[in-house]
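> @MW can you paste both from yesterday?
MW: sure, first one:
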Amino acid sequence: MSRDDLMAFPILLAPTDEQSRIARFLDHETAKIDALIQEQQRLIELLKEKRQAVISHAVTKGLDPTVPMKDSGVEWLGEVPAHWEVRKLSTITDKITNGYVGPTRDLFVDAGIRYLQSLHIKNNEIRFTPEYFVPPDWSNAHSKSVLKEGDVLVVQTGDIGQSAVVTEEYAGCNCHALIVVSPVRQVLHGDYLAWVLNSGYGKNTLLSIQTGALHPHLNCGYVKDVWIPLPPQSEQKEVVRYLKDELATFSNLTQQSTKIAAFLRARRSALISAAVTGKIDVRNWKPPADEHAFDEEVRQAGLEAVS
């Protein structure tokens, strides 16, 4: 919008005393809504912290609080169950390698082999948006970075340390500038390893070994030396099942709070629009005597919006 357009913009002009009353009305009502939005945002942050704590405890302490513990001897890891091993990643993997790291400007095609990049990896999930594809013959020629189900992808640059297991859906894809970890399947489940790397211990460890002051990145050689708390395979499966169930609850609660916050923001905008266009008559408005009445009204409206 140019300056002239702005100067010519029509404005609804109420009498000055009514303008003041509208301003006071909006100050009061939007402050109440803002407080409720902040409440939902605080809840979302608490859920994130609790989620991380659940992951970390499961992969470092196990699910049975009665088992004997031992000192792992590893910084940030602390005590682990006495019957667990603590092994370097290189000793329980078939391969730790890099995805393709060459230029991609002329590489992509409209359809072909899906090509995963760091932007697709977040919180142990692969989200293939936006979509990138490479020609099948190119992928075959770069088979070192072709993915298998159960491999674990680790973001090497950018959001360093984000990790996700390769599910059946993404087996056969190729990848760019990711570290590909292929577990020894008889010893280590990829699903479990991905949760270890997504725990507080895993993330802190990966961040501690990043190199490069100007362009931080992870080096495969250092990742090979990361210590992994290793329960028996049966326990690894139990931990994965437990986390799947527990984190689904956190996800549902987070989604609900996100929807409530979005509804409140929309209500706030609608309230402002209605007030400044005269659709709400505030000439006789006074702050409510019962300060809790508005809180309850908005809370109920927010719950109805997501139910």
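MW: second:
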Amino acid sequence: ALYQQAIDAGSTDAMVQLMRMREAAGDSDGAEALAQRAANDGNTDGLLDLAVMRGWDRAEALYRQAVEAGSTEAVVRLAMMRELEGDLDEAEVLYQRAVEIGDANALALVAVIKEKVGDRHGADAFAERALEAGSTGLLGVLSQLAWEREEAGDLDGAEALYRRAVASGDSDALFDLALEREQAGDRASAEALYRQAADIGDSRVNAIGHRWWPHGLDPDGTPTARW
């Protein structure tokens, strides 16, 4: 009754909450009607939630309804579905659409698609745009691009991207860059980077620490002397 009163007063949050209850109770039609009603009033959370609750096979139609109601998030989720299905062309089109309607985080996702299809120039360009836009979606993406370059044998390109990732605040990239430097034979740089990663608490250093510091590290980050 309280939910209905709130809905009658125009609360879209109440519509979405009641939608979840209807869906959980097995009232699929009632749930979808509430989600669509909320979307018509500008709140697409219900359609997005319903897509997740109903699973992959039924998600696309709901995401498309959300797109029609103006949800940028739904565009990105559709793009992710296409990417996971291997349709990179359609995924890129959708990510680009998200960028055009104002989602700066999608810039980083376009960069990943560009890298996957072998367009390194395009990948770099979109990564740069994401950096300039302050995209939070870029966190981790530069490391992913770097890994792609490393796998393709472009070690210089990989190192440059790892360093950009570190500079942009991706602390996990320190360990990745250290590993790349170690594999390239630059042990001095690798050790310094591993120590930096250890200083910020990257637990992955524990797995390789015995190779570098058999007796561990002192609190100040220097190798512990043998007893």
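> thanks! The radius of gyration is 23 Å.
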